[in-house]
Amino acid sequence: MTRSSRARSPSMTQPSPDAVELRGITKRFPGVLANSDVSLSVRAGEIHALMGENGAGKSTLMSILYGLHQPDAGTIALHGREVSFTSPAQAISTGVGMVHQDFALFPQLTVTENVIFGREPIRRGFLSRKAARAAVASLIDKHELRLRPDTRIADLPVGLRQQVEILKLLYREASILILDEPTAVLTPAETSRLFGVLRDLAAAGKTVLFVSHKLQEVLEVSDNVTVLRDGEVTARGATSSFTGPALASAMTGRAVDLDRTYPAGSPGKVVLEIPGLTVYAGEIVGIAGNGQAELVESITTGVHDEVAHVPESRSEVGSAPHAPLAANLAVGFQRRLANKGFLRPSAIREHAGKIIARFDVRGTGSTMDTLSGGNQQKAILGRELTHGAPLLVVEQPTRGVDVGAIENIHAQLIAYRDAGHGVLLVSAELSEILALSDRILVMYGGRFVAEFDRENADPGQIGLAMAGGAR
């Protein structure tokens, strides 16, 4: 893998205290050592990537820097001055801001109203809408963001909503920006635009902490990288000194095949037939383009006994976030886990334990929402595969999942296919569709416009069809 170069700002070459210095950070939760003696140094004007598998301790470490958690041991220094935060409000007042995976925006309010919320400009005792709009418009122009002050959040695509979150931090004069898995819900084009924004911010002297598990993105956008595994630092250094396989090995502790190809399936009987689409047992059919959400809804509505479904939204559709993990894994298995009409707690625990072990679900807290996003994904996928339905409809199977888990999930999908099931795969990652699919169908404008078999699946032609250029 290669990494594109980025011009360094003058501030990065001047000797000065590090913008962020974490020393010997240790954090324990009940039954879990999340961070163990972790140290991290980041300069001003630097994009620093923090990598690791799901549950490696990345988010915990950044939550400590942001004041959401307090360390059991260790110190934090910003620009050479030791600090101690007991709340995010304290961190923000010192110039530290964080963009979480789940955006905290009011959909019915405008960009300006969201940005100034909690820090409104007051003139003579009243909110000055003119001053607010002017301040937001000035920041948008300064950082060349693709936003308009008066647009409602509900009318913005997800990539621009993320820019609003970044704009909120800039409005609060944050000099240290933490982005937790910022590309998890972005398209490739939106990711590219985000990287442009981050490079501009770093060039202006801002410090960016980029939390990710995506190898190519880290190699492309970051200056330096720190890798965590099981709460400990396993690698650190200039990003240009690492290869993709080296980072993957540091994350997982083993060699990872990043370019694995799988043998073709053996199609059998029809498991799904609708106008324009047929799926056979023993094959994976990939769907690329737009209109997938409506297609999936039409397939999965009212046919749960015949179709297992891994939805795009883990929290809104795929699980009950505040319910125990074991209860979430029991959904759809109630009859098997009951005796004389009553659910058996021991059977539920045993059932959950098998899925947790098979799919390497880590950090198994008391409720679903205590798991990292990647581990929630592994749990939901494991539950649906265990159903053994004739057809599995899986949306974004590896979104928010680290490289080691991606390898495992892909192998599980292939095994499910080879066991005689049909798989309908929807993914924003064209590389994932190309790696797994026996056939690829492309949608444009809500209808199928092209079909490619495994041997003739050319990324350029597929991309052309996705853009409406198919003949």
From TrEMBL:
Gene3D superfamilies: P-loop containing nucleotide triphosphate hydrolases. Residues 20-255, 253-470 form the ABC transporter domain. It comes from the Bacteria. GO terms for molecular function: ATP binding. InterPro entries: AAA+_ATPase, ABC_carbohydrate_import_ATPase, ABC_transporter-like_ATP-bd, ABC_transporter-like_CS, P-loop_NTPase. It holds the Pfam family ABC_tran. Signal peptide: none annotated. SUPFAM superfamilies: P-loop containing nucleoside triphosphate hydrolases (SSF52540). Keywords: ATP-binding, Nucleotide-binding, Sugar transport, Transport. PANTHER family: CARBOHYDRATE TRANSPORT ATP-BINDING PROTEIN MG119-RELATED, GUANOSINE IMPORT ATP-BINDING PROTEIN NUPO. This is Simple sugar transport system ATP-binding protein. It comes from Kibdelosporangium banguiense. The lineage of its organism: Bacteria, Bacillati, Actinomycetota, Actinomycetes, Pseudonocardiales.
